[in-house]
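Good morning,

Attaching, inline, the C-alpha cells for the sequence recovery test we're adding to the shared suite. The designed sequence is right after.
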C-alpha cells in the first residue's frame, strides 16, 4: 500500500524515474528487461533517461507485465504501483474465469490453498 506522501513523490517523478525505480525494486537490468519484452536495450535506456516522450502502448503493456506493475502508475505516478498486473498467459485467463464462476466459499478455499502453496 502506498501512502499519500509516497504517492506525492511518485507523481513528481518522470516516467523514466518510475521505470528506473521499478527496475531497482524488481532487480532487473536494462539489457535483461529489453530482452524479456522484445525491444532493444537502447529503447529501455531512452525510457529511463526520458530521452523518449513516453513508451508506446505496446511497450508500456510489456514493461508493466514484466515489472508486474500498473501501467497507469508508470505514466502518472498515481495510486499503488503494484495494485494491478496484466493477465498475459492463457493459464491465467483460464484460472480467472474459473475463479469468477465459483461461489464465495469456494473462492475462500482456493485463496487459502493458493496462499499455502505460494513461495514464502
Amino acid at each position: 500500500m502506498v501512502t499519500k506522501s509516497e504517492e506525492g513523490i511518485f507523481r513528481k517523478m518522470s516516467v523514466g524515474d518510475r521505470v528506473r525505480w521499478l527496475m531497482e525494486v524488481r532487480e532487473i537490468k536494462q539489457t535483461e528487461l529489453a530482452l524479456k519484452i522484445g525491444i532493444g536495450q537502447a529503447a529501455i535506456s531512452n525510457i529511463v533517461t526520458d530521452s523518449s516522450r513516453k513508451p508506446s502502448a505496446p511497450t508500456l503493456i510489456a514493461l508493466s507485465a514484466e515489472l508486474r506493475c500498473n501501467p497507469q502508475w508508470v505514466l502518472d505516478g498515481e495510486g499503488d504501483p503494484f495494485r494491478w498486473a496484466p493477465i498475459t498467459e492463457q493459464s491465467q485467463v483460464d484460472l480467472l474465469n474459473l475463479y469468477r464462476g465459483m461461489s464465495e466459499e469456494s473462492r475462500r478455499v482456493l485463496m487459502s490453498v493458493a496462499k499455502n502453496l505460494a513461495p514464502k
